Amino acid sequence: MSESYPLSTMSHSHVDSEIGLSRNSSVRGMRQGIDEHNNYYAERAWRYADHIAARANHGQNRYLFCGSHFRALCELVSKSAPNNPKKPLEFDYVVCCDFSGVSVGTESARRQIQTFDTTASGLDSFASLTDPAPQTTRVLFLRGHPSAEWIKVLGAQQRIEFEYFRQKLPFLDKDYHDIPALPSNSQNIFHLNIMTVYKRHRALRWSQVDKLRKAEKKAVSKYQRSQSYVGDSIVRRVCIFDESEFAIEQDISICIVNQRGRGKTGKTAIVWLDSGRELCHDSEAPWECPLNPGYITPNNALPTIRHIPSKILASMSRLEPSVLGPERPTCSQDTCLPPSAEHLPYQYGLTLDPVIASNDLLYALSELLFFVACNEVQFLNLIEQRIATLMDGFKGYESIVLEELNYAMRLLQSRARHIADTQALLENSGSVLRNGGDRRGRRSRAPSMSDDQNSCRCSEALHAESLLVEDFAYLARRATALITQARDGMTVVSNTVMLEESRRAISKTVRLEKLTLLTFFFLPLSLTTSFFGCNFRELGGTGQLSIWVMFLTLLPVMSLTAVLCFWDHISAIEWTRKLRLSKN
Q1: Closest CA relative to residue 360, chosen from 420, 449, 423, 274
Q2: By C-alpha distance, which of 446, 332, 364, 318 is closest to 88?
Q3: Tens of pLDDT, residues 477-489
Q4: Is 138 within 8 Å of 96 (Cβ atoms)?
Q5: Is the pTM of this model over 0.90?
Q6: N or C: less crowded end of the chain, CB within 10 Å?
Q7: Domain map of the chain by residue range?
């Protein structure tokens, strides 16, 4: 269920007494990012923060629909900017891509890119950003970790549900085990997932790989809580494949903003990327070993390979630097790790028809979904190659290969869940995307397009949607096949280990049989010599018996030992003879 806005009629004094968020301190915090003369936007942002506080005050001891899970978000929006003297480079935190349905002007005019950096002027400019015009679809890219000011301005301007921020930043609070949420609870909130693969310049030792894997969850949690700058890249998980390759998992969260005024404004989709600033090389990072860091350079990051459609190849002018957008500032360190989606906001929509994108939000987001599909197939190819490498030479390393196949299978199961979520997005939530967030099914139609043109445009949008459904169905089958391949590989290795154990047991049994035969000969001799004590005349003993007495005694003793030793065989032969006689 979506949050109503405003959420509460509670007095400000009651809210302030429970949460500790005062109006004066909030306004002062807002004026750090917004000019003082622009009190209207500061007031809207403060009211949004006040509504979060009111919702968070709904405790479980009094309310059925409690808001305890929003307390961490409330604490975040009440924080002031960190006073860190070492400020990072300016960074474009918001990239706005508008697709206009007006069929006049050039194609570049129908696709407009605006950027808003992390400075106070950038926040001020974004706060005054107007709603998209009718016949316009806006894709609003957010990049990386937010600040309190950005959350308040974004939420107030776009009327974003509180649940969207909480699902995006679950590591801020304790785990209430409610994420992922039910589809019915967040019909206009969707989550995608991408992986960025890196190669180390210097390989680690296997013991270090095992140590990184065991400490990965705790290290990622610590890394998430240490982020303080706006735009810092968020890391969800670090997958350590082997000594030289690892991958960083990141999310893409989509929120479809409800249209205002029944078609008086355009459609808006907020796309929040975990990929923000470049990940700087740090010995305390969850992918690095402090004792022996394997240095990584930007060239070691594998890009997401995209197929260029034929219509783009026919007109390569779309790929000129003047069309691609501004070049983002690069990190001053040589060991920064660029995320795979760093160019996505600036160059988004190059393969789309702006007129169709302005009328169909699912088509406007199709390029993002194709990007996720290409990223996914690369990761599955990597896992398949990894499994093949493990199965080619596991002789003598069975225990290690079993651990690696189990690790690969768990990764594949995680990827299969993400693929299934995306398939559900396309199959069950496509109407929400096509209707621009209107859950009642109303869909605005561009009046400038004739019926023939509209049907032609819709056919291209439907074609893109069918391609997405086909691609993610292929990815689901591929992930399932790889899970089966990994499980079968574990079975093969386990059976090989069991076969080797059986062979060793058989070899041990043969050696025991030889020992038994030796015992058969020496045990009667030892018994006899012990009995007589070797006191024979021939051996110079003091006894009166001859040594032949020992041999005469040894013969019946050895005969009795042979009967007892081979009794099973003797009884089997006797039973077979009697059976033959009975048949005759």
Answers
A1: 449
A2: 332
A3: 999 999 999 999 9
A4: yes
A5: no
A6: C
A7: 12-77, 92-499, 533-583
